[in-house]
Amino acid sequence: MNRKKYFLLAVVLAWGLILPASIYAQKSSLGNWLIYIGSKKINSKWGIHNEVQLRNYNALGDLEQLLLRTGLSYKFNDNKNSVLLGYGYILSENYLVNLDKKESINEHRIFQQFISKQKIGKVGLSHRYRFEQRFVERNYKMRFRYFLSLNIPLSKADKNLFYLSAYNEIFLNSQSKVFDRNRLYGGIGYKINKDFRFELGYMNQFFENKSRDQINLISFISF
To answer: Pick from 87, 86, 89, 49: which is nearest to 66 by CA?
Structure first.
């Protein structure tokens, strides 16, 4: 199966999984994130990261946030560790308090990150440390993020098609109100080949005095 067919399969699976949920959730507070994460190899060490996230308040059709990221990465220590320098553009559509109206907020973000990977038996662990410099309209903010993920194969060792995925990520601000948010996620994934996999999962995002739930559909593509 060539890459065009893989892409078509991705689109079909996405709509097949998300549309039934969206019909049910249009009037609920359950949100939906559609996520594409890609990587382009320059050589064995260097690569280009690219990412698109479409985040909705109520399944589909009510935009909460559009997030675009790109960056240059470098792998070392037998590809177990990597560093990345990146840029992100974020368009947020925030509801005004007690109103049905929204305001648009633009953010430009520079970030640096370090990823370390390890294995404990069959379980894959990944630690990601990310430092962000955020230009939100006319305000400047800084934030630190720590991300810990688990990947547990469910299939036989010679196939490794299905797997369980889980992560927790905490966000800390450099200014007052240090705690920003925490994300807890669990899902199931399917690996088509070494360059292409999907995940469908459920995430809870906890803020200082409220929380929100999202269904996430994620595609990972290397080329």
So the answer is: 89
Domains observed in the chain: 3-222 (2.40.160)
Residue identified by tokens 């200082």 is: 208
Q: Amino acid letter at 181?
A: R
Please give the residue that has the higher pLDDT: either 195 or 24.
195
How far apart are alpha carbons 62 and 66 in whole angstroms?
A: 11
What's 145-168 look like in SS3? Answer: EEEEEEEEECCCCCCCCEEEEEEE
pLDDT digits (tens, 9 = 90+) for 141-167: 999 999 999 999 998 766 669 999 999
Q: Is 80 helix (H, G, I), strand (E, B) or coil?
A: coil
Q: In degrees to the nearest 10, what's the CA dihedral of 63, 151, 88, 58? A: 10
Contacts of 15 by beta carbon, 8 Å cutoff, 6+ apart: none
Tokens of 136: 């939100």
Q: What is the pTM of this model?
A: 0.85
Coil/strand/helix, residue 96:
coil
What angle (nearest 5°) sits at the alpha carbon of residue 44, between those of residues 43 and 48? 55
Rounded-to-integer distance, Cα 216 and Cα 212, Å: 13
